[in-house]
Design goal:
Two copies of one chain form a homodimer. The first copy, chain A, is α/β, with parallel strands linked by helices and about 500 residues long. The first copy, chain A, folds into three domains: about 270 residues, HUPs (Rossmann fold, 3-Layer(aba) Sandwich), CATH 3.40.50; about 160 residues, Isoleucyl-tRNA Synthetase, Domain 1, CATH 1.10.730; about 50 residues, no CATH class. Helix content of chain A is about 45%, strand content about 15%. Chain A is built from 16 helices and 15 strands. In chain A, strands 4-3-9-10 form a four-stranded parallel beta sheet, with helices on both faces. In chain A, strands 5-6-7-8 form a four-stranded antiparallel beta sheet, with helices on one face. In chain A, helix 11 packs across helix 13. Chains A and B meet through strand 3, helix 3, helix 4, helix 11 and helix 15 of A and strand 3, helix 3, helix 4, helix 11 and helix 15 of B.
């Protein structure tokens, strides 16, 4: 990598592409707003987390020691519809009541499962909001002590106007506070606030709220924005390097996070703010009411009216990474089909380069060819260094692939490559595909494939037996026994069983 | 199931086998002490959790609505060796410091992975100790208020002598308090306690302790026994039905749990205490210092001097379940090998019964045969109802298997079975093997098996081609294409690639 070829990132708060310089190298702290685990994994979220997975993988590849924190929002506003008139019964029947943590468990496991299918690396820490109630109470108290928050009737609100007198509220999203005050609607329960623009740090739990904790202001639960302010700085210090999330979180969530951290500590919490863009379906916003909602599982099974077939997790991952994280990503059956073709080309390339052997013929090095391989390899870095531009990277990988296929098909002579450039080609292609794009072979992902291949083999065995081709019969029998499978010839035909 | 055939469990606290009658049917609350996630999963723990998985599965099968809570102990006593003399540097370099939650994350994921390999169902809730600090502080305060705890220098201790004046300490483990006082050693830091037998509810954090939370008694961390008292009753109410754990936890852990709950609430927290027994290796206690320590992964890979080969997770699960949970389980290569044979017989039986078809011939019902099948099916329940006696169950499954194989081999005529008994045989065998013992086929668990089978198929293809057997060639080519795999004939031989 030359000195100009260094990682730059688009920083939402400065609205500029900036050279990435960690606060305390080689350490990098990265916080990403994670899922709310009160429902199935959302495809938009998956795209967001695949994007940060790409960044995490690339930062690791560059040699940084990355602490990647992605939270799990497990405090929701679940209410209990049960008649609580008879308290004794309610108490006796604790087991009969809805337990929010059961819901949290189900969807947390479901989320992890989907993330694993997409081959994302687990974050270094996955802190939960309910796991940090005490710290959230502490920050709330600090904000009250600093004069940026006030308590009313067991709830605590952040005083945005007061804060804005000293600091700038709206800095990240570019909103102007006067406009915000004008447009803020008067919602139910707003009468407690000094200003409609104020937001809750702690809410008094009404009787029907199930999740509640003791606080200096009574039994309640934390406001939504607080957990990220608390958990990011608890595990990464302040300031830390990268804060990410979907762009829909810019306002109000991230704006409120900044206000909370600055109000509590007096300084900005984050050096680089990164935001991923939304996804659309056939050009439209994806939404349940619009009838174009697709879940990850529907993609994997093909069970959706907009899909002509199923798409494997790796195909979908590849498809996502063909668009830059900061651009809108449009899902369509056609686009997915095209990506599947492309992904298979990449997989075949991976197989080919791994099997390709090099024969040196020192006298016929082709200078132009060697320079091209060097340049294309460098361009892979250039793509990623340009704000993690994966489509640029993928375009270069396809250029490298052309060479790989030409060497394989003997259209080009591999001996014309210098030995170090053969290694460069091989390393670059494999590293960027497997380690950075996070793509892998997925033969085993079709749960029936082994059964089907086995069936083909047994059919072949039967055919061979019928025409008394005992050489083939013996070969198959011998080879498959190595897998612990016995072939049995019965009156009814060929059977197999596990060797006992 | 007849009226006598009902679930009984051995209750450690009453030292009797008792009829299982849930407090609030059809609900069952079950709490099991989970792992400490500061190291790799321990085989002894795996045995414990496989045992409770068996119970959980059987209770679900009986139609109970089970809330199964298994905690994760993520507060340890990690200390920081870094020189904290210069506080400013320590603060700036937060990212450089050991972060216990990174360790927690790594081993929690590792634990889940192993549990998944053993095909255990995830518990309904997996609460963490750090996620319930506030509730632990509250219970500590309650115990102080009730006069059963006292604070000294920022720590809080449970007053065992005071508690024992009103309630009985030692009830579960059968220990006598006078004996305990005599034998309790005077350990470091004990001088704060009124009596050496007292135990910590809350500990003041020394400067080198990394995990610490604000409490009414200063910055500190909860005592080890507290989390289970808090989390079991938070999610299951009090009293709840089943509390489980390894028998090494009986004293002091479970004894202290009882004291905490009784001291805080005045009543016993648990109806049935169940304890799993230890495991040994070659008759000896398993221990790292004894050189006979085996990890789950070593079993799966065979990479251990005491193992002649690898054993699949399902083989090990089957092996574990061949011993009753309350008995010592002895690991040896020989015993595992025998279990592997047995497990494959079961797997073949599963395959056979699923493929077996029934032909009714009403006139030749064999009364003795029918009665035998009915009785053996009933005995499966009887085994499990006898304190979850899985070895008894497995013995009966092998008896059923003999019939399955006899029907398959035509030694017995399947038409001699009444249709309802054919269904009984099939349902009983499949349900107990798959749903209750939690065993499953694991062809796909060998990651290379598909590649190997594919290779066998390609070798057969080449052979066929060499002898110009184009029927076989075409068959294989056609069948494998259905899997998205193309066979290519090149000068170098046969190759395959993904269809693009």
């Amino acid at each position: 990598m030359n000195s100009e070829n260094k990682l730059c990132v688009y920083n939402t708060i400065t609205r500029k592409k900036e050279l990435f310089e960690p606060i305390n190298p080689p350490f990098v702290g990265m916080y990403v707003c994670g899922p709310t685990v009160y429902g199935d994994a959302h495809l938009g979220n998956c795209r967001t987390f695949v994007s940060y997975d790409l960044m995490y993988r690339y930062l690791l590849h560059l040699g940084y020691r990355v602490r990647y924190v992605r939270n799990i929002t497990d405090v929701g506003h679940l209410v209990n519809d049960a008649d609580e008139g008879d308290d004794k019964i309610a108490k006796k029947a604790r087991m009969e009541k809805l337990e929010p943590m059961e819901i949290v468990q189900r969807y947390t496991l479901g989320f992890r499962d989907v993330m694993q299918k997409f081959n994302t690396l687990p974050p270094s820490i996955e802190p939960t909001a309910t796991g940090h109630i005490l710290e959230q109470i502490e920050m709330t108290q600090k904000l009250i002590d600093n004069g940026y928050a006030y308590s009313v009737n067991g709830s605590v609100y952040f005083d945005v106007i007061k804060y804005n007198q000293k600091f700038q509220y709206g800095k990240l999203s570019g909103r102007v506070i006067e406009e915000l005050i004008k447009t803020e609607r008067d919602l139910d329960g707003q009468e407690e606030k000094k200003n409609t623009i104020d937001f809750a740090l702690w809410k008094l739990a009404k009787p029907e709220h199930i999740m509640r904790w003791t606080s200096p202001w009574g039994k309640g639960f934390p406001g939504w924005h607080l957990e990220c302010s608390v958990m990011s700085t608890k595990y990464l210090g302040s300031p830390f390097d990268i804060h990410g999330g979907g762009m829909d979180l810019k306002f109000p969530h991230h704006e409120c996070e900044i206000a909370q951290n600055v109000g509590a500590e007096g300084s900005e919490p984050v050096k680089y703010w990164l935001h991923t863009n939304m996804l659309t379906v056939g050009g439209q916003r994806m939404g349940k009411s619009l009838g174009n909602y697709i879940s990850p599982d529907q993609l994997f099974t093909g069970d959706h009216k907009m899909l002509s077939k199923s798409y494997s997790p790796m195909t979908v991952r590849f498809f996502m990474l063909q668009t830059h994280y900061a651009s809108t990503l449009d899902f369509s059956d056609e686009a997915l089909k095209a990506s599947e073709k492309g992904f298979r080309k990449i997989l075949n390339g991976l197989k080919t380069i791994k099997e390709l052997s090099y024969q040196e013929k020192q006298d016929i090095f082709d200078e132009a060819l060697n320079k091209d391989i060097e340049q294309l390899s460098s361009l892979c870095y250039e793509g990623m260094n340009d704000d993690f531009n994966s489509p640029k990277l993928i375009a270069n990988l396809f250029n490298l692939l052309k060479y790989i296929n030409s060497f394989h098909n003997k259209v080009l002579n591999i001996g014309a490559l210098k030995p170090e450039n053969f290694i460069l080609l091989k390393t670059t292609f494999i590293t960027f595909v497997e380690n950075i794009l996070g793509l892998k072979e997925e033969k085993n992902n079709n749960p029936n494939m082994l059964d089907d291949v086995l069936k083909t083999l047994l059919d072949t065995y039967s055919e061979a037996k019928n025409r008394k081709d005992y050489a083939t019969v013996d070969l198959i029998r011998k080879e498959i026994k190595k897998q612990g499978i016995l072939i049995k010839d019965t009156k009814e035909g060929v059977e197999w069983s596990y060797e006992e």
